[in-house]
Amino acid sequence: MVFQKERITEIGKKLHQAGMKLTPQRRATVNTLLKYQTKHLSAEELFTLIKREEPEIGLATIYRTLDLLAELRIVDRVTFGDGVARYDLRHENQQHFHHHLLCSVCGKVEEVHEDLLTEVEEVVMHKYGFKVQDHRLTFHGICSTCRQKERCLEQE
């Protein structure tokens, strides 16, 4: 809970620096993103969760808030090939977007927070003269749980 209050204060400062306020609707959105930060929620899913505690909030407000938070790099918009935009709260002092592991069997999404592309960025800079500001990487494959189930089925 203390961590959540600190993150909200930090996000409030970023909004203030951009000439914006941490309105009750923005606070409710950030609180929900913090509470469900491993879920990769869509705007509609966020709306459903927020509406329980803030019944007067509208879906358009959620979309505007998410657009603003994405513009300020507080959240990242991510898609996993299904056409649905989901939102991922950036971790404090995160230089790059974190990576994801997407299971093609069960759909589970895991986060990888190590920056695995540092050397690749250096190659891109030296070979092409291109300074990478951010990158997104999603590994598609089969998670350990589904692989274990496959092994069990093969042994039967």
TrEMBL record:
Cofactor: Zn(2+); Mn(2+); Fe(2+)
Keywords, alphabetical: DNA-binding, Iron, Metal-binding, Repressor, Transcription, Transcription regulation, Zinc
Protein name as it appears in the record: Ferric uptake regulation protein
Residue positions binding Fe cation: 135
Positions that bind Zn(2+): 103, 106, 143, 146
Gene Ontology molecular functions: DNA-binding transcription factor activity; transcription cis-regulatory region binding; zinc ion binding
Protein family: Belongs to the Fur family.
Keyword Iron on entry: yes
Residues of the signal peptide: none
InterPro entries on file: FUR (IPR002481), Fur_C (IPR043135), WH-like_DNA-bd_sf (IPR036388), WH_DNA-bd_sf (IPR036390)
GO biological process, one term: regulation of secondary metabolite biosynthetic process
Free-text cofactor note: Binds 1 zinc ion per subunit.
Keyword hit for Transcription regulation: yes
